[in-house]
Amino acid sequence: KKIYTRASIRLMVNPLGTTVIALNEWERGELIHSGVKEERVQVIPNGICNMAFAEGPISSKEEKLTSLTKEKYIVTVCRVAREKNIEGAIRALAQLQGLNLVVCGALQDKNYLEELKKLTTDLGLEERVHFTGFVSEEDKFYLIDRSEAFILLSWWECDPISVKEAM
User: Fold this and answer.
1) Contact at 8 Å (CB) between 128 and 54?
2) What CA–CA distance (Å, rounded) separates 39 from 146?
3) To 10 degrees, what angle do helices 110-122 and 86-93 make?
């Protein structure tokens, strides 16, 4: 297997490829060790951000976010899209007392966001559900660190990175 891999790299990858993508620094080193030219290997992270392992508290300079953390809340980190089932989280929140819901993530489906806002109003939760939109990595971990719980109710994800980051 090693001979086949090294021969493939020397005969096909190095002469024909322009870039080989590694998902982390360890994989980058393994690719180079296997014979891929160092200048061809580019790391494009597809894993847990190093900030998830920060030893001290993460802070935020965003007043909008720091004010959200003054009350108890649960948080979900996901793009605003139907498959993320944010309405499930809002409906569950209606059954809970003393908690807010913070939804942070990029807007993918504007119509869905409008439906979520209408649901929030219909359930009388407009003071308890907060849509932050896209947040920086620092602000994401700031919100996760201070939350009572992290939730993700996606209809069809089996191993999302956001759950690992929250852990």
Assistant:
1) no
2) 41
3) 10
pTM of the complete model: 0.73
Residue 93: closest CA among 128, 143, 132, 131:
128
Distance between CA 86 and CA 96 in Å, rounded? 16
d(CA 151, CA 162): 9
Contact 137, 49 (CB under 8 A): yes
* HEC profile of 77-113: ECCECHHHCHHHHHHHHCCCCCCEEEEECCECCHHHH
For 73, the enclosing helix (H) or strand (E) is strand 73-77
The answer to whether 22 and 31 have CB atoms below 8 angstroms apart is yes
Measure the CA–CA gap between 160 and 114, rounded to whole angstroms: 25
Q: What is the pLDDT of residues 148-160, one digit of tens each?
A: 999 999 988 877 8
